[in-house]
Predict the structure.
Amino acid sequence: NNYPNPFHYETTIPFEIGTESMVDISIYDMIGKKLNTLVHGNMQPGSYTTVWKANDSKANRIKPGTYICKMQVENGQLVKLMVVQ
């Protein structure tokens, strides 16, 4: 889970990769529009963190609300909700 959640300006998203894999971590609004890609690339096994600064791909601050963090790896995906205040 990301922390803090809810948050104002930024949140940290920890994640682990069990095997070498293509990883994509993206942020979506509640209607499914992609707002930002935080991680995209091949990664080795290990523990990582990434930070989302509550912005879209053009560095515009997003509005308060609930957003979706979707992490996709080659063998599955994980979806979490995040709240921006």
